[in-house]
Amino acid sequence: MGHGLEKHVSIYVAGGKTLIGAAILHELKQEGFSSIVCESRNEPVLTDADQVDAFFYRFAPAYVFVAAGKSGVSWRTKNIQPELIRDNLLTTCHVVDAAYRHKVKKLLFLASSCSYPKHSAQPMYPELLLTGQLEPTDGAPIKILDSSVQINSMLTPPLEAGNL
Prior knowledge:
Number of helices: 5
CATH architecture: 3-Layer(aba) Sandwich
Number of domains: 1
Distance between the termini: 7 Å
Oligomer: single chain
Shape: globular
Order of helices and strands: EHHEHHEH
Strand order of the largest sheet: 1-2-3
Radius of gyration: 16 Å
CATH superfamily: NAD(P)-binding Rossmann-like Domain
Helix content: 25-40%
Largest sheet: 3 strands, parallel
């Protein structure tokens, strides 16, 4: 990690309590990044646009990792709760919008592994998304991922992604 990242600027890991978010935080700290602004006492409720905007205004992160969202067993049930889908979309919308408006340098959006085609070529590249058959229960996560990608691509200019 650390490729092209300035160690002295503010970094926000949205979803720092998730498994992947905690791993990113651990790695950033191991690499000597000291301006990480997502301690639990500071993290906004990501489904609340005003809280997210106030957080970005206050901490002005230069780099944002989006590892937030609800996932797990709930996706695998036939009774996917509408609140789960709504909350994940709101989280994405609010974080990406705030990142854009507050001029974040780089944003990395992470998706669940269940969002990728079942029999994808390896290594997996973003261009391969939506190019193969998904697991039958993965419809909702991939729709959220696709919506998130579309949100970022509609920004003018789009947020720079990758190569973090």
